[in-house]
Design goal:
The protein has 16 helices and eleven strands. By secondary structure, it is an alpha/beta fold. α4 links the parallel β3 and β4. GO terms for molecular function: lipase activity. InterPro entries: AB_hydrolase_fold, AB_hydrolase_lipase, Lipase_euk.
């Protein structure tokens, strides 16, 4: 009965997140920021339209991975004070779990990392992992079909296939041989997969900036993951039996409900804020409530159930290793009953680890373990706010002054 109650509590938590997190679609972001009416619902065009609305040029690019996923990237080649030109240093930014490239522009000019990099003279590329709202295409598989193979991936495949495909495309398109990399959360996990299993990509990275790095997870404090993890095998089996492979997809019903709950003057706006805090840690002064509809516009952006399962496996095992398919399939796939660890000693790119004391998903002790496992760390860099949490790395009011300026300063040194 105890297990049953805990399962119901988990399902209730997931349902509440699904209801309040999808506060609006990208069209509501534009309406909120420009004071206009509803916009068309094409997510890809509207992500680009936000950038144009802020006075920056934007390009949309598609790249197909070796296993058939069609990914969308957005390029900002210049800005109002720094026009596009050939030969600029390239900066590539990768989002976290359930997020999208919109996170890097949603805070607006002078505040968002993408715009700050453009203003500093960089040719900026924003990646989108398979399965999010901008990358829901495959040359064979339909993401919306029942029992489709489209969702048969975790963040392992994002690191092994998606990042190399996007990085290669950006480098070939710009004529550069290496670039600067910044990633948040899953955007760091996938980076360490790429550079450990495909070590030739270390040479294509001038410096990597891991914002809230996630590899080892045994000390995380998020009640969401801690509630989910003990039942990961049962939930994975149940989802497969039900043919449910996508976690927190976009929904018009949740959009309307979230908009009413999360906007200014809404009685339940603090519920929206507290759901975010329960995931990543509490830091009320860094969350701009007025921006909640804009901040949550693309979140959740959709993900595979296996991405959540893989993280829960990492928490349970205390190891940074490949997906655990169970004893029989592990023997077939890996030749051993347990999945292999990722060989982090093969990560030789210069890596700066930026962490927060109050990050409930990337605990300080776990970040320190990661720091000791890679061969060429630039260092460990603490955000000075003692309450800095996991989501402040992308949405924090003072992210520009407490974090992004330091990141750009380090990038400049490694050009």
């Amino acid at each position: 009965m105890v297990v049953s109650n805990r399962c119901w509590a988990l399902l209730a938590l997931v349902a509440s997140i699904a209801t309040v997190a999808q506060a609006s679609t990208i069209r509501d972001v534009l309406a909120y920021r420009a004071g206009d009416g509803p916009q068309p619902t094409d997510i890809s065009k509207l992500t680009a339209e936000i950038i144009v609305n802020d006075g920056y040029p934007v390009e949309e690019h598609q790249v197909t991975t070796a296993d058939g996923y069609v990914l969308t990237m957005f390029r900002i080649p210049g800005g109002p004070g720094n026009p596009a030109r050939e030969g600029k240093n390239v900066a590539f930014i990768q989002h976290g779990l359930l997020c999208s490239s919109a996170d890097w522009v949603i805070l607006g000019p002078g505040k968002a990392l993408a715009y700050m990099l453009v203003d500093a003279g960089y040719d900026v590329w924003l990646g989108n992992a398979r399965g999010n709202t901008n990358s829901r295409r495959h040359i064979f598989h339909d993401p919306d079909a029942r029992n489709t193979d489209f969702w048969d991936f975790s963040w392992h495949e994002i690191g092994y296939f998606d990042l190399p495909a996007m990085i290669d495309y950006a480098l070939q398109y710009t004529g550069q041989t290496s670039l600067q990399y910044a990633g948040h959360s899953q955007g760091t996990t996938s980076f360490f997969i790429m550079t450990s299993l495909r070590p030739e990509y270390n040479e294509r990275i001038r410096s990597m900036h891991a914002l809230a790095p996630v590899a080892f997870m045994s000390n995380l404090r998020s009640p969401f993951v801690r509630a989910f993890a003990p039942f990961v095998d049962q939930i994975d089996w149940l989802m497969r039996m039900l043919g449910v492979n996508e976690f927190l997809p976009s929904s018009d019903m949740m959009t309307l409900g979230g908009q009413m709950l999360c906007q200014d003057e809404a009685r339940f706006q603090e519920v929206c804020a507290n759901v975010l805090f329960l995931i990543g840690g509490f830091n009320s002064p860094q969350l701009n409530r007025t921006m909640l509809p804009a901040i949550l516009a693309n979140t959740p952006a959709g993900a595979s159930v296996n991405q959540l399962v893989h993280y829960a496996q990492g928490y349970n095992s205390g190891r940074f290793r490949q997906f655990d398919y169970g004893l029989t399939l592990n023997l077939i796939r890996y030749g051993s009953i347990r999945p292999p660890d990722y060989p982090l000693d093969r990560v030789t790119a210069p890596v700066a680890l930026h962490y927060g004391d109050n990050d409930w998903l990337a605990a300080v002790s776990d970040v320190r373990q990661l720091h000791s496992s890679i061969r060429n760390p630039i260092g460990l860099f603490r955000v000075s706010d003692p309450d800095w949490n996991h989501l402040d790395f992308t949405w924090g009011i003072d992210a520009d002054s407490l974090l992004y300026r330091r990141v750009i300063s380090f990038m400049d040194r490694y050009n």
